[in-house]
Amino acid sequence: MKITAIRGFRDILPDESGLWQVLTSQARASFSTYGFSEIILPLLEKTELFARAIGETTDIVEKEMYTFTDRDDSSLTLRPEGTASVIRAYIEHSLHQKEPVSKLFYIGPMFRRERPQKGRYRQFHQIGAEILGRDDALIDAELLLMLNDFFTALRLDVSIDVNSLGCATCRPRYRERLRTFGESKFAALCENCHGRLQRNPLRILDCKEEGCRHATIDAPILADFLCDPCRQHFGQVQTLLHNERVKITVNPRLVRGLDYYCRTSFEVLALGLGSQNAVCGGGRYDGLVEQMGGPAIPGIGFAIGVERLAMLLQAQERQNAEAPDMFIAPMGEVAENQAFAVARRLRQDGYRIELESGRRSLKAQMRRADKLAVPYVLILGENEITAGKGTVRDMQTKTDRSLAVDLSASAQDMMKAIRASDV
Ligand code: ATP
Ligand code: MG
Asked: Phi, psi (5° rounding) for residue 360?
């Protein structure tokens, strides 16, 4: 009989492993500019480590762990995530005595016995990072900035959702308020959420059941309950990122299960990955190191799912292989004639150019450009073009840039100028 791999465990064959190389190298490169070093951790740990760090009542610990009894009767578990091991090692080797701030990253396989489906496996890989020893808004913003740099370097279109979970001062009041709210909607909530109402009411906000989503649409939001220090902290994180032009979306429904999670919490969502669209999750966990028997040291971190990231990159590569390099949108007849000449020159040099009729409205042209997934649209307006100017719209960042179109320049120089903003 033929022996096959275990369900939910996959081989990464040469046609995919090259891509893995690209994205792990990019992670190493992006993270090192922020001062992170790699930590290489064991795959097996004592079961109690995860029970304590992740929490006895979580899905992971209750039903997803690969746990077995070793020959000496100790209970061991294949790691389902990386943070617990990082913190164990941090405490075990007293890293806090060696440096006031530790910035660590890891790359490797994780194991969870969930139902396998596209983007969800029983052995999967994570690229994770943790910062231990700082709790200011600056460091939270830095971590998010690093994530943003990483995804930008891979040219991936993602959305970063952020929320503040408050702290031990302000969250309990919200939790009670939400419990009361949940009880008033009891009949509409699923059985799982009935349990959550008792154990951890915040989780009713991230239930995936349609009925629960609907019932909690007008639930009270944590933002209205934050204490002043938490509000300030979150405000500063947003301002710092805003100033760096990093687009984040505040999502008041973004919550995490456990009590030691606090303040900044985030998720990176891929646009166009179907239902398994979360590529990264993370947040601040100020009480965790202490709970694990270490000193009271704050922490924040994230974990990126490598399989989902690879899927995204593959989908994008396919799209890029087909999409034109640029879409030219002329407005009116004069512009149309000029655009005709520009398109010809660019195509002669091998660029794939899509040219529209100048009689169509800009809105209609942009809609088509969007559909074709072109990276740039060169908009040539009647007035501007007589002054030798056009506008470049970067379809990834959705920003406009005015550009003097030098019609005598070579096609290569022209494209270089157009792409200049994203080097
Ligand atoms: P999900 O809601 O998709 O189950 P999660 O909240 O369990 O995600 P985390 O524990 O925060 O995920 O892990 C971080 C990332 O690891 C996820 O965003 C995802 O990209 C990836 N990941 C988690 N579980 C799996 C899995 N079984 N297979 C593949 N990737 C996974
Ligand atoms: Mg999960």
From this structure: -85, 150
